[in-house]
Design a protein that fits this description.
Blueprint lengths: L1 E7 L4 H12 L3 E6 L2 H8 L4 E4 L17 E4 L12 H18 L4 E5 L18 H13 L5 E6 L1 E3 L6 E6 L7 E3 H10 L9 E11 L4 H6 L5
Parallel strand pairs: 1-2, 1-4, 2-3, 4-5, 5-6, 6-10, 7-9
Antiparallel strand pairs: 8-10
């Protein structure tokens, strides 16, 4: 069954997990991708593909037709040039936000990063001022009037998800790591809890094995 969810960054590490989890839940999403062949290799014919580029606003509107939820898990790949944080993590997110507004999307979920408010002297920010541009992307979404959820994961790992308990926090003061699969699951769980709406929060894994009680985790969130 085709769903009304658009996944942006579907071929990336987190995005692939989001797409596969949706397929497993019989909610095959629409995917906005730049490389159709690569996406077809990953997902075969199980998803609906729309070719577009978040850096080019005029390529986006068709992908948003009849979409209720956007899950954005994009990220810059180069510190400078066309794939820099400025063009992807800020301008791209701004373009998506404007397209979502025009399409009257109900919920926009954005994967950002820990430490975006602690960019000064942070070695992570040496990658093209990525933390500063991610924060500007967050701010564009927060100020848009859209209902949103902004998830700030710790250092990303390719370990299996569902192994460790997860910590939520607000205020950008924690540090840690988390698996990409767990971040993908948090994106989908955010659809189920009203406390996730208009909230920005950080997520890291704990040393204690799981499982996680999602209701308890989301219940402590406060809106921005």
């Amino acid at each position: 069954m085709r769903s009304d969810i658009l996944v942006v960054g579907a071929t990336g590490g987190i995005g692939q997990h989001v797409v596969r989890k949706l397929i497993a839940r019989d909610q095959a999403p629409r995917c906005l991708v730049r490389d159709k062949n690569h996406a077809e290799d990953l997902f075969d014919s199980e998803v609906e593909l729309h070719i577009g580029d978040i850096r080019e606003a005029d390529t986006l509107p068709d992908a948003f037709e009849d979409i209720r939820v956007v899950i954005c898990a994009t990220g810059s790949r180069m510190p400078f040039g066309n794939n820099s944080p400025q063009h992807v993590d800020y301008e791209g997110v701004l373009n998506l936000t404007m397209a979502a507004l025009a399409a009257q999307v109900e919920h926009f979920i954005l994967v950002s990063s820990l430490a975006v408010t602690r960019a000064e002297n942070n070695p992570l920010n040496n990658f093209g001022n990525v933390l500063e541009w991610k924060l500007r992307g967050e701010d564009a979404l927060r100020s848009s009037g859209l209902a949103y959820t902004i998830i700030r994961p710790g250092g990303l790992r390719d370990d299996p998800g569902g192994v460790f308990r997860i910590q939520f926090a607000q205020g950008d003061h924690i540090s840690g790591v988390i698996s990409r699969e767990d971040v993908a699951e948090i994106c989908l769980q955010a659809l189920n809890f009203p406390e996730a709406y208009n909230a920005t929060f950080e997520v890291v894994q704990m040393d204690e094995p799981g499982p996680n009680n999602w209701k308890d985790l989301f219940s402590v969130l406060e809106s921005d």
